[in-house]
Batch of 2 targets.
Target 1
Amino acid sequence: MTTDTTPSSTLSSTPSGTPDTVLRGSGPALLLAHGAGGGIAGNYGLVLDDLARDHTVIGPHYPGSGTTPPSAVPLELDGLADLLVATATGAGHERFTVIGESLGSAVAVRVATRHPERVSALVLTVGFATADPLLATAAELMVALDRAGDRHAMARFAVAGCLTDAQLARLTSEEFDALTTAAEAGMPPGTAAQFALAARVDVRAELAGVAVPVLAFVATADRLVLPASQRALAAGIPGARLVELPGAAHVLGEPDRAAWLGHVRDFLAQTEAR
């Protein structure tokens, strides 16, 4: 069920049915929740093979990502949480660790509070409990550019937001244009709808009710979700373990993702031994 092809434009009225899903490996289940405007390969491609060595990796694509059809109605957090859980149970896994990235962190929190019997642990990366002014403005801009049909400007903004100040300073204009071209080519049709959901998210009241082990990562040079918002997400969850990735961007590069993987593997070894 793995695909990285251009998503279909067919509309679905609700995020129901079986989404386009990356399914690899065997062993304890890891349910992946990707970010807005992203996908499983884009968020987790650097670590999928490693995680699948001794785990079953289940990565559903939200409506409008992968080849999951876009939704004809606004996305809702409950709908995405239920869709992810149904995908995991449909693959034969009744309990799992949820790994969420950016918007996927809020999805993961909702899975844990809406389906507590299913969740054994959470890993939250560059996440937020509610949109800070920076993210809310970014989401508003992405939606407006989508309505204007300017996917190129959407891609330029996404590239700029997902790199650090230092990374941007090192890029030539030609290199930035090349990254923009690649981002535009890979931008899923559900990007605006997913960013619109990110702007509406508010799981702050649920954080105290998360009753499983939590590992949370902060990218300290993030230009899309403020590091303070990422820290606030972790601070609201009793007992959450916080790991800071110094100088990391919103989209983790290879060195930061390697560090992330080491921490995640240690965390999984501890939680799965309980």
Target 2
Amino acid sequence: MKAAGFFEFGGPDVLRVVEVATPVAGPGEVRVRVKAAGVQPFDVAVRSGWTPPGVVGGFPRVPGNEFAGVVDQVGAGVGEVLPEVLGFGRLGCYAEHVVVPADQVTAKPAGMPWEVAGGFTAGAQTAHIALRELGVGEGDTLIVHAAAGGVGSMAVQLAARWGARVIGTARAENHDYLRSLGATPVEYGDGLMDRVRELAPGGVDAALVAVGGEALAVSLALVEDRGRILTLVDHDKAPELGIRVTPNLRSAERLAELADLYARGELRFHVRSTYPLERAADAHRDVEAGHGRGKVVLTIG
């Protein structure tokens, strides 16, 4: 089968279309013919030289840990699985087929476009898990950095549903979009801390930091309880600072709940750009440019 992978770590140009063996579903697994796969900073880190915990093996290495597609093979011991699914894995989703345990997929809502389904899993689940870790709820004031991105925009909507007031950092061109999701927008750059304090004179209770740089320093100054700061990017700094990172609590049940909210029109998900498998390098450049609205997705099938 075709996949987008790399034989050495490096910049986007190391990604290329490669021929690899088509996987076969073993006991308890399903094989999915992939229609779309999300592209995210996690994948950029893998391409740049980071090896996720538990991953072994050489090259070619195929990134991608979220996908949507059609189940075309079921392993022994697997019960009924609806044919159209979205799901998650560790790596390997930038490919024509992917094999995962059957408990890592859930049914794709009929009205969910493939490009949305392919990029939905990581943004939705990461946001949900992070907000639960932070204990966000009624009456809280939450700041979400990079609020217009794939994770940030989902976090804004979920936190607002749960009764929190959300302040979202973003470029000026994304402010109307954030307002439509339920956030009060604030622009990046010099004076950010003062602008946030003006918007929240009573203080900020929690922070979701989905971007590096100034955002973490501002969050540390604004939020008194460091246990209510969670970073999605500065994992190496978290232990010494006493802040949180997102635990690996993804599940088909959580994903199904979030997909149902989308199907009922209670969650919006914006795909900002799509690329064919052959342009995976361009998709990575898009993600690395930063500050974009919504999700970048590869279309495959």
